Every structure is written in structure tokens, then in C-alpha cells.
Give the backbone structure.
Amino acid sequence: MSQVLHLNLHREFFAAIANKQKRIEYRRQSHYWRKRLEERKYDTIIFRNGYAKDAPEMLVEFRGLRRYGRGRDAYYAIRLGRILKIRRWPKGRQ
């Protein structure tokens, strides 16, 4: 069974990934993100632009996770692979 990571994004970041300009998504290292990301194996990521029932969605390959920094400046870098599917997002939209 494939494991899916669900993440919500602001429109500008969703558009950058959809236009293949952004290949890494960042999250601050906190207890919340540590629990969701570390020691888990994901195959794909579903990005949503908002919480509405008909919000744009994108399915992207999960290519791995890296940790950077220390203390308050620590963050996760989530490496993105190919875009597998985009729903409710017009082609070429920015």
C-alpha cells in the first residue's frame, strides 16, 4: 500500500510546483513536522491549494527528506519528483 503525504500550499507555491519551477518544499523542524515526516516512508505527496471541496490538487512523487540547520533555524527539505496528476488547475496557469 502506498503512503501519501498530504500538504496544503498557498497559490504562489502551488503554481511554482505546477510550472516545474520549485523542486523542493520546505517545512520548519518542529514537533508537529517531526512526527509527520521522520521515520516514515512516503511514495507520493498530494498538494492542495486551500481547503475547499473543489480546491486544486496535485499528485507528486516523493523523492526524499533532508534535514538542515540547528536549533530554531532547523528545517526539512522535501524533495519533489515528477508531477503525476493535476486536478482543477488550468494548464499554464500562474
